[in-house]
Structures are given as C-alpha cells and as structure tokens.
Design a protein that fits this description.
Shape: globular
CATH superfamily: Metal-dependent hydrolases
CATH architecture: Alpha-Beta Barrel
Strand content: 5-15%
CATH class: Alpha Beta
Bound molecules: adenine, zinc ion
Helix content: 40-55%
Strand order of the largest sheet: 1-2-3-4-5-6-7-8
Low-confidence stretches: none
Structural class: alpha/beta
Number of strands: 8
Number of helices: 17
C-alpha cells in the first residue's frame, strides 16, 4: 500500500500497539535460530502464508507460538528497537506500548528479563528518535484472576517503568467483570487503566469495562455501536476508542474495510484514534491504517488530522509534551491544509 506524503509526515501518536505483535518474520526466524527454538515454518514466505486468520483465537494461537522465540533481554531489546526504527519514519512522536508478561513468564522467561529488554528499547526510541513512550502491561484475560493479581504484584516492583495496565487475549467468555478486583487494585496503585472490549465481545463488555474497570480508553470498541445508549455515554464521557482497521479486517471483525464502522463512529461523535494493534501480523503499521481508511472510506486529510489530534489528546503524556505535539500538528496542518485541525 502506498502512503500519501500528507499521512507520511502527519505527526501522530500510536495508542494501541502490542510489542509482541511487531515481531516481523525476518527477526522472528533470526531469533529462533540463535535461540535454537523450533517453529512450524522455515522461511519468511511460509510464515506469511500462515498468517490467515478466521477470528481472534486463530490469530492468538499463532501469535503466542511466534513470541515463544523471545527468551533473552536482547531479544526484547531487538524487538522494541526495530519497532521504533519503523515508526520513526512514520512520524509517530509518542507510542503507548502493550506487553503481555504472562505470555512470557508462563513459559519460564523472567518478568525482569522482559522488562529490562523493553526498557532499553524505550530508551533507544527516545535517545535515537526523540519518540516518547508509555508502557502498558496487559493481563491475559483467558487466564484466571489470581494469575492476573500475582502479575500485578510483580509489576509493583517495576512501578517506574510500567505506566498503565490493560486487558487483552481471547475476549468471548472472558468479560471485564472477571478482573474487576485486579483493576481496582491497579487503580489504587496509581496505574492508568485501559481494556480491550467490543472487538469480538458484546456491547455489555464495553459497558463493564467503563463501569467496573473504570477504563480511561477502550481498545477497539467496535461492537459498542450496537447499543445506542452506550454510544451516547461514550460520547458524553469522551472516553476515546483506539480503533485498529487492518486488524479488524484480518480478524474478521469487519467483512471488508469498505464496511469498517470508522466513519459511523466519527459521525456519532465518538473520540476516535487510528492504531495498528499487531502490525507484523496484519500487514501494516500506523500509516497504512490511516491510508486504508482514506482509500476505503474516503476519510479526508482534514479528518485524519483530527484523528491525529485525538491521538495526542487521548495519550497518557504530560501537559508540556502534549502542548508541544499539538503545536507541531497545528503548524503541519496550517502549512498543508491551510486551516487548523479540529478535534473529530
Ligand atoms: N493481543 C494481541 N492483539 C490482540 C487483539 N487484537 N485482541 C486481543 N488480544 C490481543
Ligand atoms: Zn490489541
């Protein structure tokens, strides 16, 4: 997909990105080889061929298998560094990055190893590219509450590195209410809170994430549109949604990108951001997601600039950084479109 010059240079923030989902086939095979980990595919083209998913669970089965190559601090550093090198040329100024510690500790990799590698990667991103970041630890919702609570206790020892907590993995049958006590404890400890909801799960899960987990953003949220009362509440509270169009298409959340609900979401007055989720698996990073919405839904440059503005407004950044980035965005939009960007 070719990305327009406007989108390429548009300053933006990425707010929904799983670092394990940035593991490109080339790096995965290289790490598998140096760690002597067996994979069911031997070449990059075999890997790409395997990336056909009928639904979220199909994807997760392959995703957890792929990340099993990650064993050492260097592996997590190389992964994170490669992500920052990619987004630096996509004009991402700030990135909020999910990681899934239980997917690593569950196979014997120490929490400290994961954190040390990612921390070095975040430092690299700032020092090399000037990209600010936040790290958000996700609980695997297919595991039980006790496992999540124990993971939260471990995270308290890394309080300065981990900014927030989230909730991901298989959604159906694992409602937010299952983790209400974990999120209460996380909020009490001062973590920012977000959760995947309404990707495959029903609108009730979005409502639970808001009412019981008290999330500050909803990750995905597509199925909230099925409940007009819920949409009205999300509009009223201005809780942002981190929407991931290419992910939605690859996982069958939408039948095709032409039927993606992003325009309906904007028209309803929801606070929408565009993000990439697991770009190495879904065929595009953040700019390809912006471009897809322009190509398939006709979202114009003005509206995309409004979405970029939302990404800065919805980010967990300090006031000074936000002002700096909004000023850069306003200048960019004034130069290219002749008017300031409006919140969408
Ligand atoms: N983990 C990585 N990507 C995910 C997604 N799209 N939904 C739920 N869990 C995930
Ligand atoms: Zn996600």
């Amino acid at each position: 997909m070719s990305v327009s010059a406007f989108i390429q240079s548009l300053p933006k923030a990425e707010l929904h990105l799983h670092i394990e989902g940035t593991l490109e086939p080339e790096l995965m095979l290289a790490i598998a080889s140096r760690n002597a980990v067996e994979l069911p595919f031997g070449t990059v083209s075999q890997v790409r061929q395997a990336y056909q998913f009928g639904n979220l669970q199909d994807f997760l089965d392959i995703y957890y298998r792929c990340m099993s190559v990650l064993l050492t601090e260097k592996d997590f550093f190389d992964l994170t560094r490669a992500y920052f090198d990619r987004i630096a040329v996509q004009s991402v100024r700030h990135a909020e990055i999910f990681f899934d510690p239980q997917a690593h500790t569950g196979r014997g990799v120490a929490f400290n190893t994961v954190c040390a590698g990612i921390r070095r990667g975040l430092d690299y991103g700032f020092e090399r590219h000037g990209i600010t970041s936040r790290l958000i630890m996700c609980f695997l919702r297919h595991l039980d509450e006790a496992d999540a609570m124990a993971t939260l206790e471990t995270a308290l020892r890394h309080r300065s590195l981990i900014y927030g907590v989230g909730l991901d993995s298989g959604e159906l049958g694992n409602p937010p209410s299952k983790f209400a006590r974990v999120f209460t404890r996380a909020r009490a400890a001062g973590f920012a809170v977000v959760a995947h909801a309404g990707e495959e799960g029903p609108p009730e899960y979005v409502r639970e994430a808001v009412d019981m987990l008290r999330v500050q953003r909803i990750d995905h949220g597509n199925r909230a549109l099925e409940d007009s009362g819920l949409v009205a509440e999300l509009v009223e509270s201005q809780i942002p949604l981190t929407v991931c169009p290419l992910s939605n298409q690859k996982l069958g959340v939408v039948a095709c990108l032409e039927r993606h609900p992003l325009r309906n979401m904007l028209d309803a007055g929801l606070v929408i951001t565009i993000n990439s989720d697991d770009p190495a698996f879904f065929g595009g990073y953040i700019n390809e997601n912006y471009q897809a919405m322009q190509d398939r839904l006709g979202i114009d440059d003005h509206a995309l600039a409004g979405i970029a503005r939302n990404s800065f407004d919805a980010a967990f950044m300090d006031a000074q950084r936000r002002e700096e980035l909004l000023a850069e965005l306003d200048e960019y939009v004034a130069d290219h479109l002749g008017t300031p960007s409006a919140a969408t």
